[in-house]
Design goal:
Blueprint: H1 3-10, H2 15-25, E1 30-31, E2 35-36, E3 43-54, H3 66-71, E4 77-81, H4 93-101, E5 106-113, H5 116-122, E6 126-131, E7 140-145, E8 149-151, E9 154-156, E10 161-165, E11 168-172, H6 177-199, H7 204-207, H8 210-213
Parallel strand pairs: 3-4, 4-5, 5-6
Antiparallel strand pairs: 1-11, 2-6, 3-7, 3-10, 8-9, 10-11
Helix pairs in contact: 2-6, 4-5
Length: about 220
C-alpha cells in the first residue's frame, strides 16, 4: 500500500474509528483537546512536523513554518508543537494562505493559532489547542522542521499519518498504517451495520449488545 493509497483510505474513515483501531491493536496515538477553529472539516494525510521554541533560542533565521509549507505536498497535514508556555500563535493568516495555495490539507497546532477569520475565508482547516491574537514576532521561533515532535503525549515523526475531526486527533505511525487502517475499516463497517439496525427499529439493547463490546477484540 503506497503512501497515497494510505492517505486515500484514511480520508474515508473518521477519527473515532481510527482511535478504536489503535485500541484493538494496543497502540497509542489519540490526542484529546485539539479542536477545529476555522473550517470544521475532517482532515487526514501525511504529517509534516514543526517544532517551535522561545525567540532567541532557535537557530533558524527563517520565518516559522515556511519550510514545512515549501516541503509539503498536496494532501499533507502540517503538525506544529508550540509548548513553550509563551502565549503566541504558532500559525497565522499568511501561513494559511501559503498552505492553501499548496493544497495542503490543513494544520494542527499543539498550542495557539490566530487569524482564524482569514482561515475561514480561505476554507482552510486549522486545528489548535487554543486561540490567541498574540503574534509570534519576538516571542517564538522555529527550532526544527521535519524532526520528531510531541503532541499531547504522543511522539510524532515526519511522515507519520494523522486524522482529525471534531472528536479529536489521532496519529498513526508510518510502520503501523496498513494494519491500523484495515482494522479501522472493519470497525467502521460493523458500526454502519449497527446504525442501520438502529434506524430499522431494532431494540437498542440488542444493537449495543455483545457485538459492540466485542468490536475491539482481535
Amino acid at each position: 500500500m503506497t503512501e497515497e493509497e494510505i492517505a486515500q483510505k484514511l480520508n474515508r474513515l473518521d477519527a473515532c474509528a481510527v482511535s478504536d483501531a489503535l485500541d484493538r491493536l494496543r497502540l497509542e496515538g489519540a490526542v484529546s483537546g485539539i479542536a477545529p477553529f476555522s473550517v470544521a472539516r475532517r482532515i487526514a494525510g501525511r504529517v509534516r512536523t514543526v517544532e517551535l521554541g522561545p525567540a532567541g533560542t532557535a537557530p533558524s533565521p527563517r520565518h516559522l513554518c515556511t519550510a514545512a509549507i515549501e516541503a509539503g505536498q498536496q494532501g499533507d497535514v502540517i503538525v506544529i508543537e508550540q509548548r513553550t508556555g509563551i502565549e503566541a500563535a504558532g500559525w497565522g493568516g499568511i501561513l494559511s494562505m501559503g498552505a492553501a495555495a499548496k493544497a495542503i490539507a490543513g494544520v494542527i497546532v499543539e498550542g495557539p493559532a490566530r487569524d482564524l477569520d482569514e482561515a475561514v475565508a480561505l476554507d482552510f482547516p486549522v486545528y489548535a489547542r487554543s486561540v490567541t491574537t498574540r503574534t509570534a514576532r519576538g516571542r517564538i521561533a522555529e527550532i526544527s522542521s521535519g524532526m520528531p515532535i510531541t503532541v499531547g503525549t504522543v511522539a510524532v515523526a515526519d511522515g507519520d499519518f494523522v486524522i482529525a475531526d471534531r472528536s479529536g486527533v489521532v496519529f498513526i505511525k508510518q510502520r503501523d498504517a496498513r494494519r491500523v487502517i484495515e482494522a479501522a475499516a472493519q470497525i467502521a463497517a460493523r458500526e454502519a451495520a449497527m446504525a442501520e439496525a438502529a434506524r430499522s427499529g431494532e431494540p437498542m439493547a440488542k444493537v449495543m449488545g455483545a457485538d459492540y463490546e466485542a468490536m475491539l477484540k482481535r
